[in-house]
Design a protein that fits this description.
Layout: E1 8-12, H1 16-28, E2 32-36, H2 39-46, E3 53-57, H3 65-73, E4 83-87, H4 92-100, E5 105-108, H5 113-123
Parallel strand pairs: 1-2, 1-3, 3-4, 4-5
Helix pairs in contact: 2-3
Length: 132
């Protein structure tokens, strides 16, 4: 299924295994994927690449997910870029901070492919219009 054919996603997580699992799922639904280990690397990629989606972990060294989201939302060119944040627990303080910065959605780790796909369906329209 390639319902997101030619869409580009940046996966931001300091844990390589997490990035690989998410990347595999995204490729299956048509995404082209880029990866970053932290928020600093992510901003470097975001400023140079045209993207359709960013999926970022909250807890990362150098620049966490909230700081990354804040930087994206404060940029006049990037502020409408869809962002999904991943958290290891249902932390109301972090979720509230992310919502105040207009995060598009959030996921609690671990999550399955279906949950990830449903989150993406809520955030960006697919070319085929089909939803899981």
């Amino acid at each position: 299924m390639n319902k997101y054919k030619n869409k580009r996603c940046l996966i931001v997580d300091d844990f390589n295994t997490a990035r690989n699992i998410i990347k595999k799922s995204l490729i299956e639904i048509g995404f082209n994927c880029l990866e970053a280990e932290n928020g600093d690397q992510a901003m470097s990629i975001i400023s140079k690449q045209s993207l359709d989606l960013v999926i970022t972990d909250y807890n990362m060294p150098k620049k966490n997910g909230i700081k990354l989201l804040e930087e994206i939302r404060n940029d006049d060119v990037l502020n409408n870029l869809p962002v999904i944040m991943m958290l290891i627990d249902d932390d109301d303080v972090i979720i509230s901070a992310a919502k105040s910065l207009n995060v598009n959605d959030y996921l609690i780790k671990p999550f399955d492919v279906f949950t990830l796909s449903k989150s993406i369906d809520r955030v960006i329209p697919s070319d085929s219009g089909e939803l899981l």
